Amino acid sequence: MLALRDIETAHEEAIARAKNPHEVASFAIAALGRRLVAEHEAITARLEALESRRALSWAGAHDIGRTYAPGDLVQRGGALWLALTAVTAGDGPGASPSWRRLADSK
């Protein structure tokens, strides 16, 4: 995030490079503009990554013949399980690290 110190630094660097007072403002504004663009790109990338995350999805009772996606929630044997990664058919909760037990009714 752009802070007062960033503005001061841009101003100091502009003074060192400038040949006249008009260049000081131009150099400082250009430096701050580049910094703002870089911050905007970083924030946009973080937002896109967050928005691309799959939400949790209730998939019902576990079916051994079905594949599951990361974020799928299933019920098996009185427990609630979360698929951490893509799960292939035949890979049941508790039998692989692809699943995490979240709750147990027992």
What is the number of domains? Answer: 2
Spatial separation of the terminal alpha carbons: 49 Å
Structural class: alpha+beta
Helix content: 40-55%
The outline comes out as rod-shaped
Largest sheet: 4 strands, mixed
Unreliable spans are: none
Whole-angstrom Rg: 26 Å
Tell me how many strands there are: 4
Strand order of the largest sheet: 1-2-3-4
Individual helix count: 2
Range of strand content: 15-25%
| Oligomer designation | single chain
Following the backbone from N to C, one meets helices and strands in this order, namely HHEEEE
What integer is the average pLDDT?
Answer: 90
Sum up the structure in keywords.
single chain; 106 residues; alpha+beta; Seminal Fluid Protein  PDC-109 (Domain B); 2 domains; 2 helices; 43% helix
Question: What does this 3D model show about the protein?
Answer:
The structure is a single chain. The chain is α+β, with helices and mostly antiparallel strands. The protein has 2 helices and 4 strands. It folds into 2 domains: 4-52; 57-104, Seminal Fluid Protein  PDC-109 (Domain B), CATH 2.10.10. The protein is 43% helix and 20% strand. Strands 1-2-3-4 form a 4-stranded mixed sheet, with no helix packed on it. Strand 2 and strand 3 form a beta hairpin. Helix 1 crosses helix 2 (21-52). The mean pLDDT is 90.
